[in-house]
Design a protein that fits this description.
heterodimer; A: mainly alpha; B: alpha/beta; Rossmann fold; 3 domains; six-stranded mixed sheet
Chain lengths: 365, 541
């Protein structure tokens, strides 16, 4: 009886996440109440902060772009039966790849730089995922452990590179020089201006389009190709995979390469689109949020999109909250985000059993 | 009072007179006779749209062996799970010794004196017998105290029932038959008066099964009641006092065993006349298709499980491998299929050396070697996938199922529909999850998939495990037809009857070695049973 209880599709994909989210918000509301602010007011401010203006929508979608990439990364690995906790490190290294291309080829035209930046980001991310994948596939080292470790190695490596190698000469802060204008991801407000739509200037940029394209490609790959089929077979039942002539070690390596490449896409948004230079710790935890996004989105690109926008809104609305309500500081916002991750991610099954029992009773009548 | 009644019903619930039998029948009000040890009244259970149990009533007399038969999906398991507290009935009553009891958990069932021996043993393999028996009810402040008390009690039980099991031996070192005794001992130690055995002989040699039946008879003499859930009609005929037949969730017959026959039971189970014998003509073997030479296969721990096996499989014949489960036949099959690489020896498919070329199962399928695995749920199917996704497992990269980079969804759907029609898979819905199909229908789909690829050699493990009688007949016909079309079939089965009925030659495997070859004509279950136990036959290799 340890198998997760079965729910109707609409409850699985709609009702359960909704209940989880509601409970998370209720708990957050209680905490805000204790801190002496009105929860209702706080949520109104958060909502307005996330969706109330072009500005806030732009920021929300800019954050969401990061979460789409890392959410997809986690989901692809999940379908192969792997828990990739290393999206953070893979995104970090992917950003390095993108950043190096932008630094080195900044004088090239954008149409030439962009594909190379995409390839380098995906390549670096994939390469960072390859080592844990190989260790799991050929040596049986558990991928959860190794990918966590590789997050730290990536962080240490980037600190070294930014402090000692890539730092812009003659300054104290560990970051590179700014990319040449040719090596910058076009911002959404500029693109929209070209077709006559005015939109506030925000970090929201074309990388969002890449994230959407990646979502469609992932969906197609997983559910519409024989390789995706093989990946799902291996993820569901390794014995059946061997029986069918599918090699689980190869699937592990392939899925992790793809996963790392997707995580590497984060650099397109964050480095090439927003920062325009390599800085320390630019993934900012998006790799871990990606786990919650993938869980909440049921590892399906459409669900991941919805969950990513929700988390984008939490980030953007949350930072607005800390500006407007003095008693709710920045750390409080992190607590609220944490509660959502906890209930929608880690404790995702908390209400599943009672809900399933309810449906069974209803069916039993 | 109970004691007197026990004496009256003692040796055999139904031999003590017809009136006793009739009073035990399902609807008889038990006013002046002894209450049955276990009585079910109008048990009803639904799972969503499936009506698994429809107003089931049955009574098990004290000191009797009660058989429960039915096809897969007839609702036997659901009923037993209700009795043992895994499920709760939607309606109906359970009475133990005439008193209504509420059984909402296995603990409540044990408290009511009901014990269960599952088909797959619930034992901790690296614990001793004693530790396994006391697990969960150790008693005493320190483990040693509990164990000492338990040892005395178990020795008494062993004396009373002739249940000799070495208490200090680690369970994994015991043969399967003895492991089963440990399960029985566990139930008795928990003071079970009613013992449910679910398909107990599936893993036993015929000799071990006989021992089990002798044990059950002794339990009956001591006044215990036994419910024997099985699909083997012979066992029902041999040991039970009464038999209840279930079909589609309802009781279709409840009769004293003496008043029925094999054929009668089979027809009631299936609902129509069935062919118990496999109808086939003589084999016309042709050229050898699969040649195995000096094959040695080791398991994951490096222990040799197949030791220097040689055989040839010819076109147009069925070769059966008989053996007690765990004697290397699984590893042999997996090595031939390419799932496990042998540590020594050759496997040749016509002129190709499969081992030296290092061909994986996919490549072997392309050469015409198909494989129906022994364990379809863990190997042959992906249970969370739809039927149509399972119908291409192992063949998913065939051009027929692909169009460029994308899968050809129309072709996959049509292929599955075609297979379902040809093999009468019910319900014929390719989009339904495979786990929603019954065992027989799952097996038919696996067979349809593997035979559908038109192989020259077909390896089959347990062709009809967990498959109901109606489907068994169908599957056997398909296999014989395949043989008559000039294909070579290698069958591994723990069902001796099946091997005897299907095979044109029987190889007996014991301890990883082929210890003899027998022609089915002069093989009996007894003779095969002895060879399976390691006694070399006169036709020994």
């Amino acid at each position: 009886m340890s198998v997760p209880a079965k729910l109707p599709r609409w409850a699985e994909f709609g009702l359960l996440p909704f209940i989880n989210l509601t409970v998370a918000l209720l708990l957050s509301g209680a905490i805000i109440r204790i801190m002496g602010e009105s929860p209702w007011n706080a949520f109104k401010l958060m909502g307005a902060g996330a969706f109330g203006s072009q500005d806030s929508i732009g920021y929300t979608l800019y954050y969401a772009t990061n979460f789409i990439f890392t959410g997809l990364a986690v989901a692809v690995a999940y379908h192969a039966g792997l828990f990739n906790i290393g999206a953070e490190g893979q995104a970090y290294m992917g950003g390095l790849g993108t950043g190096l291309v932008c630094l080195g080829l900044g004088h090239w035209p954008l149409w030439a730089v962009l594909p190379l930046a995409v390839l380098a980001g995906a390549g670096f991310g994939a390469a960072w995922a390859f080592i844990p994948a190989w260790l799991q596939a050929r040596r049986g080292s558990h991928i959860v452990i190794t990918t966590i470790m590789f997050n730290f190695i990536a962080a240490a490596l980037m600190t070294y590179l930014l402090v000692n190698v890539l730092i812009k000469p003659g300054q104290q802060s560990p970051e590179t020089r700014e990319f040449a204008p040719g090596a910058v991801m076009p911002a959404m407000h500029e693109l929209l201006a070209k077709v006559g739509i005015s939109f506030s200037a925000t970090p929201f940029n074309l990388a969002f389009g890449f994230a959407l394209a990646a979502s469609v490609l992932v969906w197609f790959f997983i559910w519409r190709t024989r390789w995706g089929y093989a990946l799902r077979v291996a993820g569901e039942n390794a014995q059946a995979a061997v029986y069918a002539g599918i090699s689980p070690p190869r699937i592990i390596i392939g899925a992790m390469l793809l996963s790392g490449a997707l995580a590497g896409g984060l650099g397109l948004n964050e480095i090439m689109g927003a920062q325009h230079r390599l800085v320390l710790d630019f993934p900012g935890g998006a790799g871990f949020v990606g786990i919650a996004v993938a869980l909440m989105g049921r590892n399906h690109p459409a669900g991941i999109f919805v969950a990513a926008v929700l988390f984008g809104a939490l980030y953007q609305g949350g930072s607005q909250l800390s500006l407007d309500l003095p008693k709710v500081n920045r750390d409080m916002v992190v607590v609220i985000q944490g509660l959502v991750i906890l209930l929608c991610g880690a404790m995702e099954n908390l209400f599943r059993a009672p809900l399933a029992a309810m449906f069974r009773r209803k069916d039993g009548e | 009072m109970i004691g007197v009644l026990r004496a009256r019903l003692r040796s055999n619930g139904c031999e003590s007179g017809h009136e006793a039998c009739n009073e035990m029948s399902m609807t008889a009000p038990s006013t002046h006779s002894a209450p049955p040890a276990l009585e079910l009244r109008a048990i009803d259970k639904r799972f969503g749209a499936v009506h698994a149990n429809r107003a089931i009533s049955l009574a098990v007399a004290k000191g009797s062996i009660h058989g429960l038969i039915g096809e897969n999906g007839a609702g036997k398991s659901t009923l037993m799970n209700i009795i043992y507290g895994f499920h709760q009935a939607d309606a109906g009553e359970i009475l133990v010794n005439g008193r209504a009891v509420a059984i909402d958990s296995p603990q409540a069932a044990i408290a009511a004196g009901i014990g269960m021996v599952h088909q797959h043993f619930m034992l901790v393999e690296n614990f001793t017998v004693l530790e396994n028996v006391v697990l969960g009810i150790e008693g005493g402040r320190l483990l040693a105290q509990g164990l000492a008390a338990a040892r005395t009690e178990l020795e008494r039980l062993a004396r009373d029932y002739g249940l000799d099991v070495p208490l200090e031996t680690v369970v994994s070192e015991l043969p399967v038959g003895l492991q089963q005794r440990v399960e029985i001992l566990k139930a008795l130690y928990r003071r079970a008066e009613i013992l449910i055995l679910d398909e107990p002989t599936a893993v036993l040699t015929p000799q071990e099964a006989d021992q089990l039946f002798r044990l059950l008879a002794r339990l009956r003499e001591q006044g215990k009641s036994v419910i024997l859930v099985t699909h083997k009609l012979r066992e029902i005929m041999a040991v039970t006092d009464r038999v209840t037949v279930m079909r589609q969730g309802a009781v279709v017959a409840a009769v004293p065993t003496r008043e029925t026959s094999l054929r009668d039971l089979a027809e009631r189970m299936v609902g129509r006349a069935v062919l118990l014998q496999v109808a086939k003509g003589p084999a016309r073997p042709g050229a050898p298709l699969l040649t195995v030479q000096d094959l040695e296969v080791r398991d994951d721990r490096g222990v040799p499980r197949v030791k220097g096996v040689n055989f040839e499989l010819h076109a147009g014949e069925i070769v059966g491998i008989a053996g007690v489960a765990g004697n290397g036949q699984s590893e042999l099959l997996e090595a031939c299929a390419g799932i496990r690489s042998p540590s020594r020896g050759e496997i040749r498919l016509q002129d190709r050396d499969l081992v030296r070329e290092g061909l994986d199962p996919c490549a072997r399928r392309r050469l015409g070697l198909a494989h129906v695995p022994e364990d379809r749920l863990h190997m042959g199917l992906v249970t969370s996938f739809a039927a149509q996704a399972n119908a291409i497992l192992g063949y998913h990269d065939r051009p027929a199922y692909n169009r460029g980079v994308a899968t050809n969804r129309a072709a996959i759907l049509a292929g599955c529909e075609e297979k379902m029609a040809a093999y009468d898979v019910r319900p014929p819905n390719p989009r339904l999850r495979i786990s929603a199909f019954s065992g027989g229908n799952q097996q038919k789909l696996v067979l349809a998939r593997e035979i559908g690829a038109d192989p020259s050699v077909l390896l089959i493990g347990q062709p009809t495990r967990g498959v109901d009688i109606g489907a068994i007949e169908f599957i056997h016909k398909k296999l014989v037809a395949l043989r008559d079309a000039g294909k070579a079939l290698l069958i591994v089965s723990v069902e001796l009857e099946e091997i005897l009925g299907l095979a044109d030659r029987i190889l007996v495997i014991n301890g990883g070695e082929i210890i003899g070859e027998v022609a089915p004509a002069d093989a009996t279950e007894q003779k095969l049973g002895l060879m399976m136990a390691g006694v070399r036959g006169e036709g020994g290799a």
